[in-house]
Design a protein that fits this description.
Elements (H helix, E strand, L loop, with lengths): L1 E6 L2 H8 L1 H9 L5 E2 H8 L3 H13 L3 E9 L2 E8 L1 E6 L1 H4 L9 H22 L18 H21 L27
Parallel strand pairs: 1-5
Antiparallel strand pairs: 2-4, 3-4
Helix pairs in contact: 3-4
Length: about 190
């Protein structure tokens, strides 16, 4: 089973958009289930559940993992293709506001490219714990943030300037993003 499945086309998004299909996906735990088992768990007619399963299977969200013959009837067992299912932002990227500053659009475009590369690496099980450095709720002044970025840039340039290409090199895209967190307004009574 994959860690992440990224839905990149509208057919997949339409398939998963139905509330009952989301219920079906949430019903799976650690083992595959048949349409009959799902219909019992969700208290829904077998024919309806079977229709939803076939739709999810057709677009690649569910996979057929086993077939068992019970009383002369073939019972098919399905399981989600991934632990996490996300929708690629590029599928639904839309804006009526074409007057945004070019600098902001460039930053957003770069970020979306990195996000897409991250999803691809996750789908291909290429991510390790060393690939992610994550800090939350860090308080910095603007000058400290600039200093941090400069220090990181100096270190990256230092490493790149003294290294020699090797046969087992792995190509990486490295992005360091500092996202300001909006302070929540407290309610006054």
């Amino acid at each position: 089973m994959k860690e992440v499945l990224v839905l990149r086309d509208l057919e997949c998004i339409k398939a998963i958009a139905h509330p009952r299909r989301i219920d079906i996906l949430k019903t799976f735990d650690k083992s595959p289930l048949s349409a009959k088992q799902l219909s019992q768990l969700l208290d829904e007619p077998h024919a309806k559940i079977n229709y939803h399963i076939k739709t999810l299977y057709k677009v690649g969200i569910l996979e057929l993992v086993e077939e068992k013959i019970k009383s002369g009837i073939v019972e098919k067992y399905y399981y989600p293709k991934a632990k996490n299912i996300v929708i690629a932002k590029s599928v639904i990227n839309f804006s009526l506001n074409n007057s945004q500053e070019e600098k902001q659009e460039l930053c957003i475009s770069k970020f979306e490219d990195i996000v897409e590369l991250f999803y691809q690496a996750a789908e291909e099980d290429l991510l390790e714990s060393e690939n992610i450095l994550d800090y939350h709720d860090v308080y910095l002044t603007q000058s400290e943030l600039v200093e941090l970025n400069n220090e990181i840039n100096i270190k990256v340039q230092e490493i790149l300037s003294k290294r020699v290409e090797q046969e087992n090199d792995i190509k990486y895209d490295i992005a360091i993003v500092s996202v300001p967190i909006a302070q929540k307004q407290e309610c006054s009574i």
